[in-house]
Sequence to fold (278 residues):
Amino acid sequence: MKDMLIRLLSLFIPSKKQRRNVRDYLRARFSVNSNRNPMLIKKYPCFPNALIKKNHRCLIVAPHPDDECIGCGGIISKYASNIDVLIVNSSGVARNKKELNAEHMADIRIKEFNQCMDKAKIKNRWIFRIFGTPPMFEQIEAHFDDYLKTINFKSYDRIFMPHVSDGHKEHRYVSACLLPRLLQKSGFKKSALAVFYEVWSPVDSPNYFEDISAVVKNKAKLLNIYKSQGGSNYAKRILGLNQYRGLTTKYEYAEAFRVVPMADFLVEAQKDNSDFPA
Fold:
């Protein structure tokens, strides 16, 4: 009955695209099931077309090299000219004491990251050389001022980050603790959106899905550059999540995101950071 009323109300709107968007909004607002992609959750506005438009500048913030491609490899493949990438921690972790010590692994991961960004045609990218024993909170914090000097956070319309319930502690730290303080210190656009992507656990309540079916092979090529991380089946195993997201959205492959206004994200981030050092 609710869905029928929503359809009737939308008939008074002349534009077909606007009718569709209004139906999506009302269905989400009143918890009515729809066979279209879920583009709205709770109070957040729907996105009528693409999350990223021609004039948007986007920053993907990743805790470690390869996280940016796991969560956003499709977005990078589709919108390379709009995107800059910041890797907070090169994540040099020793595999053995001689050939693959922590410093050597940091250099390997930095090299892989730059090769990946070259292939993706990402011009503006930054990675900070950090190595040691995880979690590397102290090493990351030592670069706090360097991040501020390097990145003009106020210039971005969309800032991508791991979601705050991710299974990796350093991922949660970057999104829930480090990045909010950087944004509060630097300032940000009033219209900016925080976009949470998934790496080692699914994002909670996604409200935007990007169709990456046409670029999934390119995403796989980017992932396979990170040979130090996953071996021959690395890309295939990660793309399994995108295929699952495709099932829920009627795309062949999709990347899932939770999108919220930046101001709302920062309010939530202030409530509880007890999981991390002061």
